[in-house]
Amino acid sequence: MGIRRFAVPAGVGDWVIAVGVAALMLGDGWSGEHLGPAPAPLGYALLAAGGLALAARRRAPVAVLAVTGLCAVGYQAAGFDVLTVAYLVAVYGAVRAGCRAVAVTSSLTLLVALQLTALVLRDGPVGEVSVQARGTLEIAWLIAAFAAGEALRQAERRAEEAERTREETARRRADEERLHIARELHDSLTHQISVIKVQSEVAVHVARRRGEDVPEALLAIQEAGREASRELRATLEALRDDATAPPRGLADVPELVERAGRTGLAATLTIEGERHDVPAAVGRTAYRIVQESLTNVVRHAAATTASVRIAYRPGALALRIDDDGKARPGTAPVPGVGLLGMRERVTALGGLLRAEPRGEGGFTVRAELPLERTS
What we know:
By secondary structure, the chain is α+β, with helices and mostly antiparallel strands. It contains eleven helices and five strands. It has a five-stranded mixed sheet with strand order 1-2-3-5-4, with helices on one face.
């Protein structure tokens, strides 16, 4: 049986801590010793306010630090001799957020303010009053809160740096692997395909000069050589482009559509929904899908028009590329390298891809790329 883990939202956790600290301080104030006459309700209100203010410690750590400090001075003046747990938690939160100088300055100010408040409002020998004031904010607890916040801040920073380093290393290794593949393809295939292409063209040319019928197999070899040469060149360009140029994304799609239009194809681009930033992997995959689809339209579809639609949806990016080419309903698409590459890219992101003839004629490519799994 699998173990399911439930993550508590940060806001809920902050409120639980705030309510717990407020209850702890109210209980300590209710059962503890009171300095002077019976404390007024205002003192209890300040105890509760100091604890509940911790609910905002992530959003406004400096403001919470100030509020809890003022509450500590206030309820001490009201006669409560209670450890300032809320202020200690606020110090931890401020240091964790990187506000170390503010936390040190605020703590020194609060120590002085507590001493002065005790000397002004309490009766008894100066030494005894000073000791009682120090009990409200123990130096050891203050240092511990500061050290805990700083330790966690450093740990989070190291974790972020390690994650960034892992991503950079993986990206560099992927770039190196792409260049290696490009070199291997160039060294092992380019020469052989070029020989096949040249020899077949020479054979066709010689046969025509002699007035002989060119065998269909020889014409097929000639055409296959030309197509293989074009595909290999395009593959090498894509591999080297991914490794040396900035990653392509949605911002580069209009250029693809414009380039397709220069071939005589009436290509249009439609963008639906409110534009927003998408993960780099999603943008790169969207670009490659549009690029491969338009390339296939220009080379194989014998189409006159093509439309590219990009829809920004909640949690997903939807793509649709349609053409009016020669594909007819009921004919299965040939699973070429381009289509397989698109499917692999979409599957890696957890998305869906459909590539099939349209009912009204032509071909359609539809993809839905989720944003949550890659963000």
